């Protein structure tokens, strides 16, 4: 079984809690989602500490349990 990179998009609130999370194996879709989330954060949210984070993991076991997981 080949291993593929899983892209994890997270919106994190000022307290460090994951507010939203989407994980997928499609790099282009992951970057599009990340850019959309970055653009949707208001300046006030950014000042207050909200962040949009994009990271990779090697296993679905490393994806937060509350994530929307897209395997296509």
Q: Which structural category do the helix and sheet elements fall into?
A: alpha+beta
Global Rg:
13 Å
- Percent of residues in beta strands? 25-35%
Low-confidence stretches: none
How would you describe the overall organization of this protein?
- This protein is an alpha+beta fold and 72 residues long.
- The protein has one domain.
- Helix content is 28%, strand content 33%.
- The chain contains two helices and four strands, in the order ββααββ.
- The protein has a four-stranded mixed β-sheet with strand order 3-1-2-4, covered by helices on one side.
- A hairpin with a 5-residue loop joins strand 1 and strand 2.
- The longest helix is centred in the middle third of the chain and has 14 residues.
- The protein is globular and about 40 Å long.
- The model has no long low-confidence stretch (mean pLDDT 89).
């Amino acid at each position: 079984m080949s291993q593929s990179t899983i892209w994890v998009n997270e919106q994190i609130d000022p307290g460090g809690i994951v507010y939203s999370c989407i994980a997928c194996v499609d790099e282009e879709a992951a970057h599009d989602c990340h850019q959309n989330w970055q653009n949707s954060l208001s300046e006030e949210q950014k000042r207050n500490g909200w962040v949009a984070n994009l990271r990779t993991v090697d296993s679905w076991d490393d994806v937060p349990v509350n994530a929307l997981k897209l395997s296509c």
